[in-house]
Structure formats: C-alpha cells, structure tokens
Amino acid sequence: LRSVMLKEMHEKKSGLCQNSANGDLEIEMIFKLSEEELDSKISSVRVVPELDKISGPAKIVLFPGIEGFATVFENLTKVLGRAVALQYPADGRTTTVSKIVKSLAPVVEKLLTKDEPFTIVGYSFGVLIAAEIVNILESKGYAGTLICIDGAPLFSKTIMKNLNEESELFVQNSLIYQLLSCCIPLGELAKNKVDIFKCQTWEERVNLAIESVKKNAPLKADYLGL
After folding, report:
1. Which of 21, 54, 64, 170 shows a CA-CA span of 20 to 30 A to 44?
2. Lateral strand order in the sheet of 118-123
3. In angstroms, rounded to a whole number, what is the distance separating the alpha carbons of residues 167 and 34?
C-alpha cells in the first residue's frame, strides 16, 4: 500500500493528475483509516475489542500506525485468539512518543499476565510505541515477542532509490501534496500545486497546506488539529 501511495506521489509531481482538476471529486476524509470525526475526540486509550473476565487476559496486542485508529485491526482481532488493538488518545495532550507511551503502558500492563508470554505487534509509527512499551514490560518481569511491520527506514530508502529521487525537497513537497489530495477537492489541489513546489522551506509548505485545508476541507478545524 505504501509503495502504491509513493508511486502516486511521483505521478502527481509529474502532472499526471491534471485531468482531475475540474473539482467534481471531493474526498471528505484525511486518511482512509480516519473513520468518523467523532472517533477523533476520544480522550482515553481505547481497546478493540473490549475484553471481559471470561475471555481472560490478552495474548496479542496490536499498535496501529500514525492514524492511531484501532479499527484498522478489527478484522484481525476477530481471527486471532485473545487479540486486541489499541487506539491512541486524541485529546491534544499526547503529542509526543513518550506521552503516548505513558498513556498506553498502564493499559497494556492490565491487559497482559506474567503467567504466559505476550506478542506485541507494531505497524509503521506503531513500531516506535510498541518498542517502548515492550521495554517497560520487560523491566517489570513480563516476557514475550515484539513483531515490527514496516517500521525500519530501509523500506523508505528502497522506495526512494526506485523513484530515482534523493532530494529531501522532493520528499517534502510530494508528501504534502499527497496529504492534501486526501482532504481537499482535487480542483483546489491543482490550483495549489505550483505554489507548493515554489516554497523554499518546510515551514512555508506546511503553512500553505494548512491554509488550504482550512478553506476547503469539509471537516471541522478542531478535528483537523488546526
């Protein structure tokens, strides 16, 4: 999926999406996995599915990527025995890895037992969180296995090599352009393309993107975090 996304980034940079500049299409979600706007207001850690006393302690704990929504793993938890996924709190206070870990660690500890080994799975950004959680658990006498999915820089480096692009400027511009394509009408996106690629600094690009989202995204500003 990430390979496909980066390929699209490269195509958009090359101007291959000009025929979609009529503004007829509007994408009303920031990410495909962002679920409903209401989900973003959850201020505490959410466990999917919720465990009861009958099912016993969890054996597998899954950590999602940067979108933070546990529902991405919902189908997986149904086929795995005693598996749960965690949804990161979105209260505006957990803005760093250390703060997210601090909010999740006690929840994970309550889900597990020292009587049997755990399996913790981290995907993408979730690998950072999962690794820190495992470190805390091991210091308290828990034992288990950490599985990391797409959490190493090697994958990104390989993609960059395949794209024949080593420029940090290209990566920044393409990333912002791709993100904007997910949350504003494509017609507006085409209008902003030239300005985005003219920006000289990361701050300029981010500020331009924020203003564009504020004007065009069909979501509330507090949901967008702007």
Report:
1. 54
2. 46-48, 83-87, 60-63, 118-123, 144-149
3. 30
Architecture of the domain defined by 37-149: 3-Layer(aba) Sandwich (3.40)
Report the DSSP beta bridge partners of residue 148: 122
List, for residues 142-200, the tens digit of each pLDDT value: 999 999 988 776 766 666 666 555 567 777 777 787 778 777 777 787 887 788 878 88
Structure tokens at 199: 């920006």
Tell me the pTM. 0.58
Given a contact cutoff of 8 angstroms between Cβ atoms, the answer to whether 62 and 123 are in contact is yes
Domain coordinates in residue numbering, the chain: 2-26+167-224, 37-149
* Helices and strands counted in the chain (H then E): 9, 5
Can you state the angle between helices 168-181 and 186-198, rounded to 10 degrees?
A: 160
Task: Count the Cβ atoms, other than its own, within 10 Å of residue 31.
Answer: 14
pLDDT digits (tens, 9 = 90+) for 107-117: 899 889 999 99
Structure tokens at 28: 């009303």
